[in-house]
Design a protein that fits this description.
Alpha-Beta Plaits, alpha/beta, four-stranded antiparallel sheet, Rossmann fold, 2 domains, 10 helices
Length: about 300
């Protein structure tokens, strides 16, 4: 039986904005549950309410109505903070500290000292790939390096739950991969990782489950194969050395063709015609490179939800 690590019940947050104090609902009755040992992606466009949710979970702001629990304690309970690691979306780091000094400072906040603190610091620098930058001042770090040292500080207390707000935002592809690899290693160590993002491919690559937030409301939650249409939209056949006559025949029976300099991509809408297309390629002395059923992607599902279509 899995244990609940994060749970919210009818969580609502209303802000007063503008000169007249107009009420704006950032969250509308959020019911969410994250279980032990999973990577949970909290997906939504900018302004959906992701950071507001995280701030409530971290006890930085209070909900207007509803409740939130972390590790079976109320989110505002100070005692539970020792078991949480947190990296906000826009953290502030003192520029003139080195990596080692930075981690020592946060370790001392948790009462760590001596050999125990040194061991944790060294292990974390290795985990995030910054052992060679241990004595480099943070002002000389790239964006990706700052994100990695930020994750290291979030782990200095050996938390059970790690909460990351937009950890891949603003990173190049290499930086995003580095952060994804760290998150996967945390899962291997039995940690629960909850991270918000609007970068869809990152969610598809590493998450066990995903929650989709739109305008303060949770519109979908579950495993990717549960929330998306599993039906095959078309089958993509990539082939080489297919004659023009064969291609014309394939197009005539309802296939879409995309030619490049060395191969052709044949999109077959009717699955029943796949075998006949493969036979045509074989008869024409062509070679099949790949046959891939194409289903709805998370990006397509996400855009569909934003557009309000069914």
């Amino acid at each position: 039986m899995t244990n609940s690590v994060i749970k919210t019940e009818n969580l609502t947050k209303v802000f007063k904005v503008g000169f007249r104090g107009k009420s704006v609902a950032a969250l509308k009755g959020l019911n969410l549950e994250v279980t032990e040992g999973e990577i949970f992606g909290f997906l939504g466009p900018n302004g959906a309410g992701k950071t507001t949710t995280i701030k409530i979970l971290m006890g930085l702001i209070y909900p207007t109505t509803g409740k939130a629990w972390i590790l079976n304690k109320e989110a505002a309970d100070v005692e539970v903070k020792n078991r949480i690691g947190f990296l906000p979306e826009q953290p502030y780091f003192y520029d003139y500290l080195t990596s080692r000094e930075f981690l020592r400072f946060y370790g001392q906040l948790f009462g760590l000292e001596g050999d125990e603190l040194r061991t944790r610091m060294n292990n974390l620098l290795t985990l995030v790939g910054l052992e060679d930058a241990a004595d480099l001042q943070l002002r000389k770090f790239s964006k990706g390096m700052l994100q990695r040292i930020g994750i290291a500080q979030a782990l200095i207390n050996q938390p059970d739950l790690i909460v990351l707000d937009e950890p891949m935002s603003g990173l190049d592809p290499i930086g995003r991969k580095e952060i994804r690899d760290i998150i996967l290693r945390l899962k291997e160590d039995g940690k629960t990782v909850f991270f918000s993002t609007h970068i869809i491919p990152d969610v598809e690559m590493i998450c066990d489950r995903v929650g989709m937030l739109m305008k303060g409301e949770l519109v979908n939650v579950g495993r990717l194969n549960e929330i998306m249409d599993a039906k095959v939209k078309y089958v993509e056949i990539v082939a080489r050395n297919v004659s023009k006559e064969m291609l014309a025949h394939m197009e005539a029976i309802g296939s879409s063709l995309y030619e490049t300099c060395d191969h052709v991509s044949i999109n077959v809408r009717d699955e029943d015609r796949v075998d006949s297309i493969l036979q045509l390629i074989k008869d024409g002395k062509g070679s099949v490179v790949s046959v891939i059923p194409q289903r709805e992607t998370l990006e397509e599902h996400f855009i569909k939800k934003i557009g309000g279509t069914s």
